[in-house]
Amino acid sequence: MGVRLDPADEYMHELGPEPNFNESMYINCFDPSSGVGGWFRIGNRANEGYAEMTVCLYLPDGQVGFMYKRPEISSNDAFDAGGLTWTMVTPFEELRIAYEGKVVVLDDPKQMADPKSAFKNNPFAECSVNLVFTGKGRPSMFGGEPDTPHEAPGEEFAKGHYEQLIAAHGSIRVGDREWQIQGFGLRDHSWGPRYWQAPWYYRWLTANFGDNLGFMASRVAKKDGPGSRGGFVWDHGQIHLCDDVQITTVTTGDDQYHQKVTGVISSSKSQRSWNFEGEVQTLIPLRNRRQDPEGNWLMTRISEGMTKWTITSGEHAGATGYGMSEYLDQIIDNSPVGIAE
Questions:
Q1: In what residue span(s) does the DUF7065 domain sit (predicted)?
Q2: Residue 269: CB partners within 8 Å, gap ≥ 6?
Q3: Stretch 57-78: mean pLDDT, rounded?
């Protein structure tokens, strides 16, 4: 199966006919000196008349500044909604974002499990974000658009999808506090039909240890079928395409949020493996709800953990960095379906 990725893919794609056509950009970054960072996303659902806009900032002492909106849109012409604006400067090399608006400041981010209550009972602060993200060009890109469909009807999560490790610099201000950011992260761009209920569960791990080392590990489970495992490692100027990842998770509390992740990501082509472990520093649980054709409400939980990562074997043993561990689960009988992994 061939995969296409052109500079034009860094910009907007033609709006498809599917009611749930989604085009989204996501980016995260963390400053290793201060531990401050966050992630940002816009998902255009123009055929449904709105965008999904999220700003999530991980602040000192475990606080989170958070905002989610569904601003109205009528086209798929730009990522610019709800106060969050994306500007592509040079494909594969430079991207900028800016946000002006409010965030709710959470001393206990897990309150977002009940978003209505969390927004009602916590203070808001004015927020300003200006960040520049730089990448290492086309050789550092992972993914693209396959030349043949790779998902069954009703199970689509993205027609095209690519990722890249990046560096970041700029500023984040929340209220009267401001941080200068010099850090690292990962960005993601996808387009095509999407329902958050399509995967049975997934684990998406992003880790960046500086200019020369990082990884993305992905485990996607289907309700009926083996799903997929893979990702990539960027190791001193070379991208290693990985075809397996094994993950073990330690959870905490009655809600079974992930707290510690250990695993190994492997490339049969490179004949190399990288062992890693992650400790969640701060976690915020998000959710998506949708009615099925019979009128039943389907609940999806997406637990977003700012994570400190360590390489535990090989030539990079002891290297530490930051990133995300994103755990998506369908919730059945009040329990996440992927708890065994």
A1: 12-83, 153-194
A2: 240, 241, 243
A3: 97
At residue 152, does pLDDT exceed 70? no
Q: Which pTM was predicted?
A: 0.95
Number of residues written out for the chain? 341
Least confident interval from 28-42, 56-70, 151-165, 320-334: 151-165
- The mean pLDDT of the chain is 94
Please give the Cα distance from 12 to 87 (Å, whole number).
11
- Is the CB of residue 103 less than 8 Å from the CB of residue 124? yes
Handedness of CA 155, 158, 161, 167 (dihedral sign): negative
- In contact, 165 and 186? CB cutoff 8 Å: yes
Distances (CA, A) of 337 to 21, 27, 256, 311: 26, 27, 11, 28
Largest Cα separation within the chain, whole Å, is: 54
Helices (H), the chain: 115-121
Mean pLDDT of 95-105: 98
Sign of CA dihedral 301, 61, 35, 250: negative
Residue 246 in contact with residue 262, Cβ under 8 Å? no
Share of residues in the chain with pLDDT > 70 (%): 96
Partners of 158 in the β-ladder? none
pLDDT at 150 > cutoff 80: no
pLDDT class for 196, splitting at 50, 70, 90? confident
Q: Given this model, what pLDDT does residue 133 score?
A: 98
Distances (CA, A) of 110 to 64, 286, 309: 10, 9, 21
Element containing residue 263 per DSSP (H, E): strand 257-267
Mean pLDDT, range 13-17, rounded to an integer: 94
Measured CA to CA in angstroms, residue 41 lies from 28, 62, 195, 287, 318 at distances of 9, 21, 16, 15, 31
What's the CA gap between 290 and 295, in Å, rounded? Answer: 9
Residues 86 and 120: their CA atoms lie apart, in Å, by 29
Could you give the C-alpha distances from 125 to 63, 111, 120, in angstroms and in order?
A: 13, 17, 13
Residues 106-127 as b/e (b if ≥16 CB within 10 A, e otherwise) read beebbbbbeeeebbeebeeeeb
Radius of gyration of the chain (CA): 19
